[in-house]
Amino acid sequence: MDKTETLKQKVVNHQLEFKKKIDSIELDVHWFRRVFHTFAASFLIYYILPDEQWINALKIGISIFIVLFVTVLEYRRIKGKIGGEHFFGLRTYEEKRPAGYLYFGVALLILLLFFPQQIAIPCILCACFADPIIGETRYRLGRKGAYLIGFLVCMFFFIITWYPSELWVILLISILGAITAIIGEAVNFKILDDDFMIQMLPAVFILIIWQGLIVFGINILPREIILPM
Amino acid sequence: MMNKKLDYLKRKKNANVIKIELYFTPLLVIFPIIVSILLIQDWFYRGYMLGVSTYNGELFLGLIIMSGNIIFDIPFLKSLKSIVRK
Fold this sequence. Notes:
The complex is a heterodimer. Chain A is mostly helical. Chain A has 7 helices and no strands. Chain A has one domain. Chain B is an all-alpha fold. Chain B has 3 helices and no strands. The chains are: A mainly alpha, B mainly alpha. Chains A and B meet through helix 1 and helix 5 of A and helix 1, helix 2 and helix 3 of B.
């Protein structure tokens, strides 16, 4: 009887120890993912670099190269040619599909290359900061509270970028931009990751509004807020 | 399913993985700070010094990038420090 009890106790202790280790790794991975998000805001350097032909070509080339490199890396990982252990911060469901950072990179590239900075900047900031803030506050405030905080943060980013506009434009764009960003984050799209949708959904939506109003002779796009050095 | 998850996480816990994270750390922490300083510096010299308000947006963005990164860098570095000790 005593032997069985001791064995049980040993197994429980072993499990607790193992759980502790797993928790510590998860905690670390969790902060790594958060910092990877906030780090991406530094890609806004794209807009501040001098507006010269060779620099423009270089920055476009480097952006495309980074995304292509990551795509090849992900392809090889999924095919099993590169071991998953070399990729830090992967989620379990990302084992057999492209990881979130690839979606993030593709959306970032599309925004930098094809959207005006007035639309791209707040959408990038939403993915960089609102996404991790929602993730953090979700533990403390629950889903609804986290999305409310996320909505306010996204709204703030749109207000900051569109502040040179008229008040009705700032209100319209910040509210619609924040709503679509939160939809992009909250709704589970089957093929596309939330890191992609939180950027692209508000960007496409605002692009449609902007172009739609141009048809009626109203241009709501404010001046650029980052000027090349 | 749970076992699969544990196995996957267990696989990750090796020295190589920690090394990858360590290699990335300077880039992840320093680069955003450099970009935010660039934005704030640009606002200071071309905006504030010459009295041009067009550059105020760069100040706001610089402050957002700097504060946002610092807020998340601190717990990240703490967690990294503790895992390196282990």
